[in-house]
Structures are given as structure tokens and as C-alpha cells.
Amino acid sequence: MTKLEQELGKLRDEIDSIDRQVLELVSERARCAQRVADAKQEHSETEADAVFYRPEREAQVLRRIMERNGGPLGDEEVARIFRQVMSSCLALEQPMHIAFLGPEGTFTQQAALKHFGASVISVPLGSIDEVFREVESRAAHYGVVPIENSTEGMVHHTLDMFRQSDLKICGEVELRIHQHLLAAEGVDLEGVTRIYSHQQSLAQCRRWLDARYPAVERIAVSSNAEAARRAADEKDDNVVAIAGDMAAELYNLNIVAETIEDQPDNTTRFLVVGHQLSGPSGKDKTSMLIAARNKPGALYHLLEPFHRYGISLTRLETRPSGIATWGYIFYLDCEGHFSDEPIQSVMKELADDTLELKLLGSYPQAVL
Q1: Which residues contact 120 (CB under 8 A, 6 or more apart)?
Q2: Where is it mainly found (predicted)?
Q3: Does domain 180-265 have CATH number 3.40.190.10?
């Protein structure tokens, strides 16, 4: 045995020993999670009353892990490992059903798995309305829906659903969107006849497509996963799709051109909706819906209290009210939790000076 083989043998023995310790600790954590579940059920009137998923608690744990990480693995990589450990332990307490805008293979599913880990039951649905209804009926514990893209802006349908739904926002997910050109085996890339994708993805890759396939028909479909399915089914017609890694794997397509989006930092933000209000995590956002009175200076009077109390606004969007001509609803996000005294003061002032004020939720800012 050479000196190198001896050295490698010792290192592998050390790794085997560490693996055994890791396994013992993970198993102990899982047993502790089971005891947590037993305690919650014991002190709840019914099983439905027991709250197993606490987004503020999970955010605090992940932030602490990242703060304590000493390398060599990066902070986000370590957090993703712990996210999956937490997901698996939570599944022992209560297997969670997570509704998302489907079909399978969409970026929304990817966002759901990023936030909840892989140990959940994913429920693909055909529309944002269906996701809200699935959670409202308690057929799913939580739902994940897109809210905005850094390139294409807000998803207005999601905003409008909050006007009619009593669901609360209990989390957010930020997902870096990488668009790929996908093709089935044997497709002639020089003779492409059609390009399928969601309309936002086609817009996000417009310059790349104009440079390489300017004369090829671009067909918008309901989702990138649907585009990938069509590319697989219609491969004999020399069609391709624009979609992500998950869709490529699901439909057995080759990635023939990677990261073709025009903006390299293209990011989509998703919201997690459920029935509960989240407690403060220490680094939160609050979202609310406001119907202002139709009078001069209405927007100023809406925004001025936030400035006076030192609250930072992170998003302000306007949508037609649907009630009066030229009437508008304002959706805004601000830093902080609704239980914080400054936000409480602002909400009290706004409630006295607006037609409607609806708290959509306070939730931990995205950790990963």
C-alpha cells in the first residue's frame, strides 16, 4: 500500500466516523420533533388546532445557522442542508400538503420546494384562483403563488386575489430564474419550427431569441412545464421550449442552451399563503391593502405616516378598485412586523382616514 493510499484510508475512516455522528444527531433531532408534535397535540383541543409549521421559528433557525457557519461550505449551502433536515423532521410531526401553480416542473414548484424542503406533498393546480381555493378549503395546508418578477413586474392576478380572500401571507420565497432552451433528442436546432414557453419567459429571453431565432414562431402557453411537455410530445416537428432545470428533468429534454435570459439577475418573488398570522422573527415584512378616499392629496396622506414613524416601504402597487370609476386600491409592503409599535400606530391612523385597510400578513423576509 502506497503512502497516498494509507493517507486516503485514514481520511475515509474519519469521514465514516463523522457520518455516524451526523446520523445519530439527525435521528435525535427527529425524535425531538416527534416529542414537539406530541406536546402540541396534547395541548390543543383538536388535531386541526395544532400548529406545526411556524415560519418565524424556521427563519430564526436558518438565520442563526448562517451566522454561525464557519465554512468551508457557503452560508446558503449550509442553510439548504438544514432546511431539508427541518423539512424531514416536520414531516414526522405532520405531512404537509402544499398547493402551487402547476403543472409539475414549474418555477413555482421549485420555489415551494426551496421554502418547505422536499419532504412535503406537492399539489399542482391549474390557476392562482385554484391555489387560493385549495388552501381556503383546508385541502392544502399552504399555497405558493408568484407575486413579482424583477424583469416583468407584478403578477396582478395574485394581487387581486387578496381583495376577495381571507388568507394571510405567511412567507416569501425569492428564486433566481434561469431559463434554458430545451429540446428532445434528435431535434434539428437549425430547423426549429416553433418555440413554446410562458409569455413572461418569452419576454425575459426576447433579445436572445431575436438574435438566434428571429423568424421562428413563438407560442405562449400556460406554463414553462406545459411548454416542455409539448416539446417532448412534438419533437418530430422540430419544436423546442424555454423552461428550467426541473422541467428538463421531468420531460427528459436536453438543455441545448443555458441561462438564455436577457437579465442575468432575473429573480421571481413568491408568496406563501395560509390561515395563520406569523409571529415576529426579528426581520420581517408586512403587507397591507388600502382603499384611499378619492380626494386631493390622498396618496400623500397614505404615505406620510410611514415616513413620520421611520418605516421603510419596499413595494407600492396600484390596482383598480372595481367599485367606482377611477377608484384605486393600494397594495404595499413595508419592513417590520404588524405587532411593532410604529406599524401599529400607522395602521391606526390609516384606519381612521381610509375607506378600507386590510392586513394581508406579516412574515419573515426571505432567508435563502
Answers
A1: 87, 91, 95, 96, 97, 98, 112, 113
A2: cytoplasm
A3: yes
Output phi, psi for 20, to 5 deg. -65, -40
Q: Write the CB contacts of 182 (distance below 8 Å, at least 6 apart in sequence).
A: 228, 231, 240, 241, 242, 243, 247, 248, 251, 253, 254, 255, 256
pTM of the model: 0.89
Q: Which three cell numbers stand for residue 37?
A: 408534535
Grid coordinates 416569501 are at which residue?
A: 172
Torsion of CA 359, 365, 341, 167, to 10 degrees: 20
Residue 194: predicted pLDDT: 96
- Which amino acid would we find at residue 349? E
Query: Largest Cα–Cα distance of the chain, in whole Å?
Result: 87
Task: Give domain limits for the chain.
Answer: 1-88, 96-175, 180-265, 277-364
Q: How confident is the model at residue 175 (pLDDT cuts 50, 70, 90)?
A: very high
What is the dotted CATH code of the domain comprising 1-88?
1.20.59.10
Fold match flag (96-175 vs 180-265): yes
The CATH superfamily assigned to 277-364 is ACT domain (3.30.70.260)
Residue 358 DSSP SS3: strand
Cell of 18: 463523522
Best CA proximity match to 202, nearest among 152, 257, 265:
152
Cell 439577475 found at: 265
Query: What's the CATH number for 96-175?
Result: 3.40.190.10
